[in-house]
Amino acid sequence: MKRKYWLPVSVAMMLVLQVASVHAKETKPDVKANTKDEFAAVADRVRQQMAPGGRFESVKKGDQETVNRDLGSMQSLYDKFGTVDAMDQASKVQLYNNQSEVNAILTHNDADREVCEQIKPMGSNIPKTVCKTQRQINEENSQSQQLKQDIMNVGRQQPVGK
Hints:
The protein is mainly alpha-helical and about 160 residues long. The chain has helices spanning about 5-25, 35-50, 60-80, 90-110, 135-155, and strands at about 115-120, 130-135.
């Protein structure tokens, strides 16, 4: 291989490997069950995890209503048919659509979901991949906001002219 092609090819290979590793870290909640009893347990667990301190606590109120509506729709299908195998095709499609919507909302708001980004460390032009959980990002944002408030409060408390 010619020398002038070596660097671009190696950089391209490194990018492909980084992208592959970022996608491998993605987690997805699985709201899925085959029987009525299994689904009841899954639905209860999801509702508990949407409460404060839970894995899905950052789900907005409107999205919580959507999740609860979809869980109720799925529950009615399980009440009617008992199992996925007993459902007709239209019911299976409805169940799948409800599951997909719930999983999409929960995945986006999963506190354990890893979010990776490319950053350039100070003093370097070589980007570095940094991954944090959504919970860590939320905590850092909260701490930053608290620090900002503390600094603003200290500035207001000092006398103007002495």
